[in-house]
Amino acid sequence: MTEGSSLPGAIAAAPRPTRAEPVRLSSRSRRRIAGAARTLTILLVILVFFGPVVWIMLTALKQPRDVYSLSVIFTPTLDNLRTAFASPYFLGSRTLNSIIVTTGTIVLSLPIATAAAYAFSRFRFPGGNAWSLGVLATQFIPPVIIIIPLFVAFRSAGLLDTRLALIIANMSFVVPYSIWMIKGFIDAIPADMEEAAQIDGASRLRAIWDVVVPMAIPGIATAAIFAFVVSWNEFFYALVLSRQDAVTLQVGLMGARTERGDAWEIMAAMGLVIILPMLVLSRYVQRYFVAGLVSGSVR
Amino acid sequence: MPGILPARRFEGWGRMHDRVLKYWLIAPALLVIAGTLLYPLVSGLWYSLHEWKLSDSPALGPFVGLGNYVVAVSDDPDLLNSGRVTLIFTVLSVVCTLSVAMGLAVLLSGNGRLEVNARTLLVIPFAMSPALVGVSWRFLLNPEFGGFSALIGALVPGLKGASFLADPTLAMAALILCDVWHSAPYFMLMFIGALASLPQETVEAAQVDGASRIRLFFEIVLPQLKPVLAIAVLLKIIFSLKVLDQVITLTNGGPGTSTETLAHFIYQTAFRWYDVGYAAATAYLLAACMAVFAAIYFQLITERRPA
Question: What angle do CA A67, A71, B154 make, to 5 degrees?
């Protein structure tokens, strides 16, 4: 978080100056106990919040018979992943669908959002602030309203169960939120430099591309991480819009619910694939995704 | 200004006047928003005025005016039940999430190694998809081999071996637990940011006066966090009102309809019973509730940051 404080618009915990606490002679041991209690509480918090994640990952690597015991000691195996990749779970094609939908959403959304963010930041529109606030306001429409007409429209267009339908649906929340995030960063870039470039003979479009976009990279990166996390995690639109061919990892989770009960080791294996990118990117997720979301919603 | 000096590249297009250019820059975004948000919003409203079983016909059914709305508000015990479930869930999840988040923020706001690492780890539950969170807790709360139900059984003997998801009250508790676990880290980071921006002087002054830590928190720190707290409450209310993914994967509304939130009710009505007209009408009722809170939220954030 501390690194994040250099970003414009990112709210981060600023380093607190270390203050000398008023020292009372008898209080030294009391403070030591308080310190130990504090450490213990933090460890407990980590157990409660991170323990379940570890548990799911361990379960993914357990033999099926160990899944139904509470033991933490077991011989790890990749059998569950192997089973999950085979029929009827098709973890491979689900993963591919998730990757394509996520990448497609990011690649299509960011240029669109950056252009709009620049325009909202630099130009005045009739109606003023209402435009950019209106863009954010769309994010308070509950997804259950949006999905009904989208489903009907995609059905008549023959786009049900296609990755394109999922990308379009994802853009409904990625584009508006990205505009809002990137605009915050462009607001902080002084207009002098692009004006100087224009006096030197560059067109405004060229000035945007050569001057503004490079300086807005942290903002675009924030939006990219945001877009990645929310598209990767998107469940509801994919659940309604896909049947078989376009099923993503999130919807695939439901497939491990069989008539004979839940196949937990398979769900855990899918969960592992779902969490893995978040773990790898956790530093960036914290710095950009959460910080971006927090600043976007508080400012 | 463009056009004064000789152009190099981007002739024509690039030399476009700003007055025109700005609309070109926002056009693609507006197209996306119009197509994926405004069009569904308007046509959903239109559907809600019709009786339309999608399973019977792909074409819009007969116009019934406000008929769907009248049924919804006056004569639907299931919808009433969902409203009640949503109300209980929203109140409890808002209170629990924000209290836990505030506790975590106070505990983890320092810059010690342990605190920083704990914050990084705590982001993972929030970065996990709500769908996976629901599935994971379904597993963790399994009475036979769930790790968490074993832990609860050890702490609270009365709950030993309880099937959380088979009992209406415990299922609601499980849904709230799962939501707190997922969303508290997000609000924690919001509160840590707010704590860091508090003026140190007031806190120090209070410490010199010998105020105890707990009193210090409630009398000095908390009042100063009011603006951020107000925003957090509104945001969490809005998030809770539309909760859906975890409901589908954790309880699927059950047992019976004891955890069937409004969003889940609408989802079932539309995509299980294919009663699209009625689903759209109830969706608009939910949106109306959310709009009230969203309006207050926007009031607050525009006040905080004058344009």
Answer: 110
**Is A20 part of the contact surface with chain B (CB cutoff 8 Å)?**
no
pLDDT tens digits for A217-258? 988 998 998 899 999 999 999 999 999 999 999 999 988 776
List, for residues B182-217, the tens digit of each pLDDT value: 999 999 988 998 888 888 777 677 666 667 778 888
Per CB-CB distance under 8 Å, the chain B contacts of A118 are 25
Chain A residue whose CA is closest to B53: A152
pLDDT confidence of residue A8: 36
Taking an 8 Å cut-off on Cβ atoms, the answer to whether A236 and B245 are in contact is yes
B32 interfacial to chain A (CB closer than 8 Å) = yes
pLDDT number for residue B16: 64
Cβ separation B196–A14 shorter than 8 A:
yes
Report the mean per-residue pLDDT for chain A: 83
Of A52, A125, A279, the CB nearest to B140: A52
Q: Is A64 on the interface with B (CB under 8 A)?
A: no
pLDDT band at A266 (very low <50, low <70, confident <90, very high): confident
Please tell me the number of Cα atoms within 13 Å of A180 on its side-chain side: 26
CA angle A139, A144, A145 (to 5 degrees): 75
Q: pLDDT grade, residue A89 (50/70/90)?
A: confident
The C-alpha torsion from A138 through A142 and A144 to A148, rounded to 10°, is: -20
pLDDT at A296: 56
A63, A49 in Cβ contact below 8 A? no
- Identify whether the C-beta of residue A287 lies closer than 8 Å to the C-beta of residue A2: no
Residue carrying structure tokens 């109140």: B91
SS3 B5: coil
- The closest of A298, A137, A49 to B187, measured between CA atoms, is A298
* DSSP class per residue in B35-55: IIIIHHHHHHHHHTTB--BTT
* CATH class of the domain defined by B81-249: mainly alpha
Question: CA B168, CA B211: separation in Å to the nearest integer?
Answer: 44
The string of pLDDT tens digits covering residues A7-21 is 333 333 444 445 555
Residues of A with CB below 8 A from B116's CB? 1-2
Name the minimum distance, in Å, from the CA of B237 to any CA of chain A.
11
pLDDT of amino acid B5: 47
- Whether the CB-CB separation of B94 and B239 falls below 8 Å is answered with no
- pLDDT given at position B6: 47
Catalogue all structural domains in chain A, each as residue range(s) with its CATH number.
Answer: 89-298 (1.10.3720.10)
Q: Could B40 and A146 be called an inter-chain contact, meaning their C-beta atoms sit closer than 8 Å?
A: yes
Query: A116-149 burial by CB neighbour count: b if 16+ within 10 A, else e?
Result: bbbbbbbeeeeeeeebbeebbbbbbbbbbbbbbb
Which residues of chain A make contact with B119, given a CB cutoff of 8 A? 1, 286
CB-closest option in B122, B200, B245 to A235: B245
CB contacts, 8 Å: A261 with chain B: none
Q: Does A107 have pLDDT greater than 90?
A: yes
User: Would you list the domain boundaries of chain B?
Assistant: 81-249
| B63: three-class secondary structure by DSSP | strand
Q: What is the mean pLDDT of residues B288-301?
A: 89
Statement: residue A159 has pLDDT above 70: yes
